[in-house]
Fold:
Amino acid sequence: MSNVDSYENPDDERRQHARMSVHWQGNLIGADEQEDCFVLDISPQGARVQCANPFPNQDCLTLHLKQGERHSAKVVWRQGSFMGLAFANGDEPKLAA
Structure:
């Protein structure tokens, strides 16, 4: 996976909520595939994740956090192995690490 330190999110100026930096394991589930991922930062509205194959043909995914939470999400941007996810309204994560 790519070096996270050199990554800059193209949507930083448009964020409505501050994101909490985390390093959580997760799993992304698409219509007919799933893949392990790392959640790099998260907020009540979305997350930045990194995975080897960022679901190039799917925009609606479920993010399953290893803490047991599942969140419906829409892919709002992709850059290399990184993706920005926006959670569905009312599907906010519990942010206690």
Observations:
- Residues 77 and 84 are 5 Å apart (CA to CA).
- The chain has one domain: 19-87.
- The radius of gyration is 12 Å.
